[in-house]
């Protein structure tokens, strides 16, 4: 709480202007990753959805996971968020290692997620939808909430203050009292992002946040995702089909094919990787084809 009485989002102490290299500095300094997957495999009956996937994501890093349809991208996000229990391997969040991430504790572990399909309460206002993003972080008991006791009242006021900040951050203030379902699709996607960010996550999982958007809406969303990384220090894992957008936004790119990890590196390196080009184009001729063609 600031001296003026307004609630300010907590920013990491080491926030600086050079967001693109801060994750590398974290690795060099031996800082534990926000998210780490070790040997993740997942099967459904006889179908192998993921095969021995390893990755780490650090504070203030945008990591994109890409791959052709059926590569295992959504399965990977579902493992990270606890919807699926991996057949093998572990997920580490906030320094804690799990065989299956406890979905009920995601908010307290510092994780928030958006979904491919909008999951808004369309009859509720934009403000109320965003406030709901704080519910899992609240500690007041059900009785305290019903009775409106001190802690519940403080948490409710805090949630509304944070929601107001998120509306300002995402240029949604003018729509605060409108039903979310009445907004254009691109604005509804912004409301969903605001609802995730209001939980003040250390890790934000974005599952195809630009799906179905116009070129203008994609450009706006790209700006907001990058700003969330820069201003709040959030580590962001992005699943996205728009290859051109991915290479422009991400600090690092992981590529999956048939559930296996075939590349992990800087966008410029992954763009030229022969295995990646073959996965997208069906040819292994990097001298004649580039990822721009796949985009």
TrEMBL record:
A GO term from the CC aspect: plasma membrane
SUPFAM superfamilies cross-referenced by the UniProt entry: P-loop containing nucleoside triphosphate hydrolases
Pfam families found in the cross-reference section: ABC_tran, BCA_ABC_TP_C
Keyword rRNA-binding appears in the UniProt entry: no
Molecular function (Gene Ontology), one example: ATP binding
CDD domains: ABC_Mj1267_LivG_branched (cd03219)
Keyword Membrane attached: yes
Keywords, in A-Z order: ATP-binding, Cell membrane, Membrane, Nucleotide-binding, Transport
InterPro entries the UniProt entry points to: AAA+_ATPase, ABC_AA/LPS_Transport, ABC_transporter-like_ATP-bd, BCA_ABC_TP_C, P-loop_NTPase
Segments forming domain ABC transporter: 35-283
Parts of the chain that traverse the membrane: none
Protein name in UniProt: ABC transporter ATP-binding protein
């Amino acid at each position: 709480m600031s001296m003026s009485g307004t609630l300010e989002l907590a920013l990491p102490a080491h926030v600086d202007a050079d967001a693109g290299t801060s994750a590398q500095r974290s690795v060099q300094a031996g800082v534990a990753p926000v998210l780490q997957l070790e040997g993740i495999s997942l099967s459904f009956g006889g179908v192998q959805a993921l095969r021995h996937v390893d990755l780490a994501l650090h504070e203030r890093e945008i990591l994109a996971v890409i791959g052709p349809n059926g590569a295992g991208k959504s399965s990977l996000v579902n493992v990270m968020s606890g919807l699926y229990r991996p057949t093998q391997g572990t997920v580490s969040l906030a320094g804690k290692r799990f065989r299956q991430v406890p979905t009920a504790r995601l908010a307290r572990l510092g994780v928030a997620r958006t979904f491919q399909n909008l999951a808004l309460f369309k009859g509720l206002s934009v403000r109320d939808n965003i406030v709901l993003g704080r519910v899992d972080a609240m500690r007041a008991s059900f009785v305290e909430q019903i009775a409106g006791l001190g802690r519940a009242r403080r948490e409710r006021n805090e949630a509304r203050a944070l929601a107001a900040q998120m509306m300002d951050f995402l240029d949604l203030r003018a729509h605060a009292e409108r039903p979310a379902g009445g907004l254009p699709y691109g604005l509804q996607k912004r409301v969903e992002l605001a609802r995730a960010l209001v939980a003040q996550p250390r890790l934000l999982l974005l599952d195809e946040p630009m799906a179905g958007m116009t070129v203008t809406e994609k450009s706006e969303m790209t700006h907001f995702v990058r700003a969330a990384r820069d201003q709040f220090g959030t580590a962001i894992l992005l699943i996205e089909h728009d290859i051109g957008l991915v290479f422009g936004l991400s600090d690092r790119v992981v590529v999956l094919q048939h559930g296996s990890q075939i590349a992990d590196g800087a966008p410029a390196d992954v763009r030229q990787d022969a295995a990646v080009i073959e996965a997208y184009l069906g040819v292994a001729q990097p001298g004649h084809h580039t990822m721009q063609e796949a985009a």
